Amino acid sequence: MSSIESGCLEKIRPGDEERRLIWDMASALVREIDDSGFAKGMVVGSVARDTWISGDRDLDVFMLFDPSVAREDLEQMGMALGRDIATRFGGDIIEKYAEHPYVNTHINGFDVDLVPCYDVESASKIQSAVDRTPFHTRYIRERVDNLTGDILLLKQFAKSCGVYGSDHMTEGFAGYLCELLVLNYGSFEGVLQNAAVWTPGTIIDIEDHRTKDFDEPLVVIDPVDPGRNVASSLSSTKMFEFSVFCRDYLTSPSGDYFIIHKQPGLSREEFNDEIRKRGTSLYTIVFENPYSIPDILVPQLRRSLRSLENLLEKNDFRVMRSDCYMGSGRSVLLFELLDESLPPVVRRAGPPVWNRSNAEKFLKKHLGLTYSGPYIEGERYIVEIERKYLNAMTLLKSPEIFLSGLGKNVKISMEDHYSVHRNEEIWDENFSVFFYNYIRKESPNVRILQKSSGK
Q: How does pLDDT run across 203-247, given as a tens digit for each residue?
């Protein structure tokens, strides 16, 4: 371990007092669950595996119910027990959803998840996805003794790179995935050396028990479930941002690769100045978040973004780039257009004239309705007709957007209400970080290379 890495580790490894505080809280919660008579308590996640970074205040406590309990009863009993425990500890109650509901609460500065699951005897008998988590905890805990420092470094490194987190908005590396990578490659340095030369389709199977094929860019077979890819949520973008980050660090090591970059925002004035310099046209569609969990809503946002981008392109509005963001209460779809206004006339080509039936249908459809044509050019009928939408705003406010293939919950929300904004009008303080990341978009390694070069 280099001096840079040992220095970083000294800062991010929790101290004795921090450990005592979090374990006192964890133990008290587990006792409450055990004493309920309904379930057994178990601390899971990075705290249980001793792979949590100093300052992290997340605590995952599972409530393990007998597998004979019906699924509906598990949810009702689990939520009732979670609410009761949160109340007794003076915490607030926030109902969240994964595969089934669980209680999130804030107690003495800790962000606590109280999650019901089944106490199954093996991972092959899980009844819900969360039932795997206790097996993940046991698997890592039995093998991690001499590698916790390497895992902490990797997690901090991934956070600095901006690729830490398996949620659908981040599409990055889960904590469990980081732990498995260190177990597989043997050290923090081993992960970096191998990740620096990753190619699409890389497969890691620690237990050599894979039972199916996967098409994700990185495949890491779950040691406790041979039919699951732990890296399924990792996008190719995040995979190769990380790969290049590793490559550059190995070439020129620096403590900057372990500093978590604070996400700045843009002021209204800065944003408007950037828009004027770009010379393009930015449009946003804003609507209330539908009642849906992020794991469902974010993929629907991306689907809606692609559908509306296709709609714009089909109507000849060229899209340079687009992006989406789910805020705390509202979501936004952003499109940057190279063309926002078009002439009234548009050229359309019909089928080849030798395709007689279709060519004659095309001919009859356009007789008397064109600026020019129909006329034959090469082997096809050509018409120059009146364009339906002369500007992007009209199109984005038209009923056609609801026929474009929006995500189900997104469509429901937008049918209730949505607003379209252009250029300076799109400014919203709540989206300032999203706008900053869009306008100043750059790969994580570029920030460090620019700093080292003084640019």
A: 999 999 999 999 999 999 999 999 999 999 999 999 999 999 999
What does the alpha-carbon distance between residue 66 and residue 125 come to, in Å, rounded to a whole number?
13
CA distance 58 to 46: 9
Q: How confident is the model over 399-425, as a mean pLDDT?
A: 96
Cα 49 from Cα 147, distance rounded (Å): 11
Strand partners, 117: 64
Q: Over the Cα atoms of the chain, what is R_g?
A: 27
List, as one string, the DSSP characters of 371-431: SEEEEEETTEEEEEEE-S-SBHHHHHTSGGGGGS---HHHHHHHHH--EEEEGGGG--GGG
- Please report, for residues 102, 209, 347, the alpha-carbon distance to residue 342 in angstroms, rounded to integers and kept in the order given: 51, 58, 12
Q: What is the DSSP letter of 70?
A: -
| Identity of the amino acid at 373 | G
HSE-CB at 355 with a 13 A cutoff on CA atoms is 11
Looking only at Cα atoms, what is the longest distance across the chain?
Answer: 85
Rounded Cα distance between 443 and 337, Å, is 22
d(C-alpha 221, C-alpha 183), whole Å:
13
- Asked if 4 and 10 touch (Cβ cutoff 8 Å), the reply is no
d(CA 370, CA 383) in angstroms, rounded, equals 7
C-alpha to C-alpha distance for 236 and 332, rounded to whole angstroms: 23
Domains and CATH numbers, the chain: 14-140 (3.30.460.10), 143-261 (1.10.1410.30), 268-341+390-442 (3.30.70.590), 345-386 (no CATH)
Does pTM top 0.85 for this prediction?
yes
**Cis amide linkage into residue 290, ω under 30° from 0:** no
Phi-psi sector, 292: left (phi>0), alpha (psi -120 to 50), beta: beta
Q: Tokens standing for 434?
A: 């999203």
Please give the full DSSP string across 278-296, using - where no structure is assigned: H-SEEEEEEEEPPSS-HHH
Distance, CA of 30 to CA of 61 (rounded, Å)? 7
pLDDT tens readout for residues 296-337 = 899 999 999 999 999 999 999 999 999 999 998 999 999 999
Measure the CA angle with vertex 380, ends 378 and 384; round to 5°.
Answer: 105
Strand partners, 102: 96
pLDDT for residue 455: 63
Decide: 22 and 107 in contact? Cβ < 8 Å.
no
The length of the chain, given as a count of residues: 455
